[in-house]
Amino acid sequence: MSEARAESLRHKLTQDLDGEVQFDDYTRHLFARDASMYAITPLGVVFPRDADDVAAAVAAAASHDVPVVPRGAGTSLAGQTVGPGLVLDLSRHMNRIVELDPSSGTALVETGVVQDQLNRAAAPWGLMFGPDTSTSNRATIGGMIGNNSAGSGSVRYGMTIDHVRELDVVLSDATRTRLAPVDEAERARRAGRVTLEGALYRELPEIVRVNAAAISEGFPAHWRRACGYRLDRLAREDTSFDLAKFVVGSEGTLAVATTALVDLVRKPSRTVIAVGHFTSVAHAIAATEDALACDPSAVELMDRTILDLSRRKIEYAALGHLLKGAPEALLFVSFTGDDEAELVDRMRRLTALWSRHGHGYHTLQAVTPAQQGSLLKVRKAGLGLLMAASVGTRRPLAFVEDTAVDPAHLADYTRRFKDVLDRHGMTAGFYGHCSVGCLHIRPYLDLADPADVGRMRAVAEEIKDLVAEYGGVNSSEHGDGLARSEFNREIFGDKLYEAMRQVKHLFDPHGILNPGKIVDAQPMTDNLRDATLKPAEPLRTRLAFEVVGGGGMRAAADRCMNIGLCRKTGSGAMCPSYMATRKEEDSTRGRAGALVKALSEPDPRTALGDERLHEILDLCLMCKACKSECPLGVDMATLKSETLSHHHDLHGVPLRSRLFGAIRVLNRLGSATAPLSNLPGRIAPLRRLMDRLIGIAPQRPLPVFVRQNLLRWSRRRAPAPHTPTQGTLTYLADSFTTYTEPGIGRAAIELLELAGWGVRLESGGCCGRSSLSKGLVDDAKNKARGLVHRLHESTDPGSPIVGCEPSCLMTLRDEHKALLPDDPAVTDVAGRVRQVEELLVAAIDAGRLRLREDSWLAGRALLYHGHCHQKAEVGTAATVALLERIPGVTVTELDAGCCGMAGSFGFESEHYETSMTVGEDRLFPAIEAEPAETVVVATGVSCRQQIFHGTERDAWHPVQLLREVVEAP
Q1: Is 824 within 8 Å of 789 (Cβ atoms)?
Q2: How far apart are CA 795 and CA 805, in angstroms?
Q3: Which positions ≥6 away from 247 have C-beta within 8 Å?
Q4: Those residues with Cβ within 8 angstroms of residue 911's Cβ, 6 or more apart along the chain or in another chain
Q5: CB count, 10 Å around CB of 859?
Q6: Which residue among 53, 286, 509, 914 has its CA within the 20 to 30 Å range from the CA of 458?
Q7: Distance CA 921, CA 904 (A)
């Protein structure tokens, strides 16, 4: 399309829609991909606010002969949500639950509502949406309708098609209508209308009648179908004429759904899980028959590939502690209901059956939610963990991953499937739903290699034929999309396929709605993402990007495979800015995609200084949650630091960035001149001046400097009264608590000395964390080198290095390796970093620290919020363990995400509102719901500042609480 014509469409959309319209190159690039192996750059993207906007967008696109591609979370695995036309992102604004009626067990929702969002709303009435996808924390109801999604519980709850009652849709002529079951009289009445809707009710029955034999014989026998158009549903003589169910699974090619009335099911109150351990995938599959005999709600397979990958990620590592031995495969068998005793009995019956029949070598029985948490987390993350095994552009790909056969044939089918892979020299990861005969098998291929593209096609054709031999389906829940639509003529036969083409033409005579999916598709090897990506131009970076397979900075960004876990809400910390704005570009996925675009330009150094790219990266809080929660470990904090450094090269360093980069000097001066230095924070005209000149938010309280800082206290205190019995360690006097909360450092040092340690205070310089966060990488490198060499040269070999501020302490473990990758001193120091909590727990358990039973904390509840960097690098287990050792307390660890402060981010005027929105999402409400007697605990200085500002509650550092209860020697 010509630029003038594209501009005409953009202008028309801007005039007619209330929602945003974006035609810039970066937005188009972000929406060129979904979670599949495909990429097609759209003409533009719109973000409708309501159904009127959708209709206006369809009308405008049609008037310009531009296709429309409806999109939810963009997690489609077969390429359904990429296309060359106008993308409609229904997830940003159209995400309201209009009505939830417990009495009828239904919910009326806009199609951008996320599955978990609906389930949270339905939970108080003991209800939920039946299909349970592994992507439930970001998959939209509209996307599930488009795919006819199913999930792990489909053996009990069926597919999305079984739960849709009515749909409000926009048709291809931009008219709006409601699709719902109608009897013959109503169908005939509607058929009399001289409209597109009338034609549907008039001509569809004739298509069904003429093709009755093909419909009866052409559909695969297996019930779990997410392929083709569901003419078989219309052909049922004992049902009403139901166009709502008919368009389920049509992938946006027949209509754009805007609102759905869906059925809810009763949510079981109890779940128990048996986890069988097997020496091979084949043995695990062979045990499925016994599992199905015990009436489970789900039977899920996971192979060793995924298990090994889970052990490498802090987010999922807990599973490894529960397993026995080194299983090659696990079978998760879930039993759900309301009678726990009956469920446990079925689980034990299965265990006995497996033992009697020689299936597996161990069965883990998980009854309580605490026992099940890590099991369920890894099971849901199977796809992402498998993707983490990617090496460069060699990735586990979705093209034969959605087949299903009768479970009775699954063992033999899987054996022959593996024979096909072996013959073509391919390896693959195996996981999926054994209860319904569906395995998600993803072979590893490099689609930048034409030979691998050819091998992929050969395997796809062989597996298609193998599936047909067993009466199975080629697409059982992930849909046809670009990956499988090409084969639909062979799968359904000429007559039925032509009937489907007639359906498409009837609904969409001008080919406006998501063309090239289900019928009239291009070859599956067209529009491959990796095959079309240009080789990266050389770029010298300041930070080291250690990417498996090489490739540097672009490869680090391109590890993202768009699975969209960073679009989740309501759990975890990734991605706080997306949770606040619900914008694709504010997700880790969006930022990674933008960086891939910039780093693929002919001059990547200049591209990294692009203002649109800078805008996309701007709201990244650099919390590092993506490093641990993203299964592929996309480290956006490091990528942003490097990008900012290039932006500074081109545009200069802002004054505010220089000031925050020098935070240790500023805090030291503030402490030296306290209390006078605290006055500017209390004088409104000065705060307004700081806002105007530097960009410091006047609403945000400034830190309070303490004249008697940690260094002064250390110089003036008497020597420790006890001779060290545990050796000497180094306490890192960080740039923050040292000058504003010295009581934390005092408590830590006193506790460590009471625990038998000699404590050396390291106060000579900054770790470089603040400089790095502002893109001052060279300055951070100099600071890191100075600190690391002091620690390496002036401390005992192997002696611990501890601290109380996670962001500073973890910098020694992580960022210094990227700053100084070849420095052996960095490796030495990083290996000696310990959390102070670890040493204190060991001292308590060894009896070297004795805790009072009658302290003021006895009987209190402790509410703990962990620091994002701590969670990303080492986890919070040591802190929780320390708090739990305080006599008489109960400890609750919040899952409240990032606090939103993120160091300097929350102080910056343009970021203040986003910072507070992040805190208001989950953290502030959780604290405000607690009684005044509850003690709030937080390890991070920024977290404590944000908690006080947002809730007016003081938060303690764990060592302060422990100091309160330690008995004097």
Answers
A1: no
A2: 20
A3: 145, 167, 169, 179, 254, 255, 257
A4: 619, 697, 905
A5: 11
A6: 286
A7: 20
Q: CA 260, 263, 267, 272: dihedral to nearest 10 degrees?
A: -90
Judged on CB neighbours under 10 Å (0-12, 13-18, 19+), 152 is buried
Structure tokens at 341: 């005793």
pLDDT in tens, 125-143: 999 999 989 899 999 999 9
Residue 480, C-beta contacts closer than 8 angstroms, at least 6 positions apart: 78, 80, 226, 227, 228, 251, 488, 517, 518, 521
Q: Is 791 helix (H, G, I), strand (E, B) or coil?
A: helix
In this structure, the chain runs to a length of 969
Name the residue with tokens 């790095």: 772
Residue with tokens 């401390």: 795
Residue 843's nearest CA partner among 698, 725, 931 is 725
Structure tokens at 336: 């759900």
- CB burial of 300-319 (b: ≥16 within 10 Å; e: otherwise) equals bbbbbbbbebbeebbbbbbb
Give me the half-sphere count of Cα atoms (radius 13 Å) on the Cβ side of residue 462: 16
CA dihedral 5, 7, 12, 17 (to 10 degrees): 130
Spatial distance between the Cα atoms of 294 and 850, rounded to a whole number of angstroms: 51
Res 451 pLDDT > 90: yes
Q: How far apart, in whole angstroms, are the C-alpha atoms of residue 805 and residue 766?
A: 12
pLDDT score for 548: 59
Lowest mean pLDDT among 442-456, 541-555, 794-808: 541-555
Q: Return the percentage of the chain with pLDDT > 90, whole number.
A: 89
pTM, entire model: 0.94
Spell out a b/e string for 74-103, using b for 16 or more CB atoms within 10 Å of the CB, else e: bbbbbbbbbbbbbbbbbbbbbbebeebeee
**pLDDT tens-digit map of 193-241:** 999 999 999 999 999 999 999 999 999 999 999 999 999 999 986 778 9
The answer to whether residues 646 and 599 touch, using CB atoms and an 8 Å cutoff, is no
Tell how strand 428-433 and strand 298-303 pair up. antiparallel
Q: Rounded to the nearest 5°, which phi and psi values hold at 122?
A: -85, -20
Extract the tokens encoding 448: 């930048």
Q: What average pLDDT is seen over the chain?
A: 94
CA atoms within 13 A on the CB side of 279: 4
State the pLDDT at residue 322.
Answer: 80
Spatial separation of the C-alpha atoms in residues 947 and 952, rounded to whole Å? 7
* Measured distance CA(383)–CA(398) in Å, rounded: 10
- Give the angle subtended at the CA of 769 by the CAs of 739 and 907, to the nearest 5°: 65
Is the sign of the CA dihedral 345, 351, 356, 359 positive or negative? positive
The H-assigned helical ranges of 922-957 are 923-928, 941-951
Query: Is the CB of residue 69 less than 8 Å from the CB of residue 79?
Result: no
Q: Which residue has the tokens 């009990």?
A: 156
Instruction: Please tell me whether residue 853 adopts helix, strand or coil conformation.
Output: coil
User: What pLDDT does 206 receive?
Assistant: 97
Token duo for residue 852:
């009072």
> Quick one: tokens of 594?
């933008």
Alpha helices in 358-509 (DSSP H): 369-380, 382-387, 410-423, 450-469, 481-484, 488-492, 494-507
Alpha helices in 820-855 (DSSP H): 824-832, 836-845
Nearest to 151 by CA among 162, 160, 142, 164: 160
For the record, the structure tokens of 165 come out as: 């009652």
Give the span between the Cα atoms of 708 and 738, in whole angstroms. 10
Distance between CA atoms of 963 and 851, rounded to whole angstroms? 9
Segment (H or E) for 582: none
DSSP 72-104: SSS--SSSTT--SSEEEE-SSS---EEEEETTT
Backbone angle region of 802, left / alpha / beta, with phi > 0 → left and psi within -120 to 50 → alpha: beta
| Cα Rg, the chain, nearest whole Å | 30
Residue type, 486: E
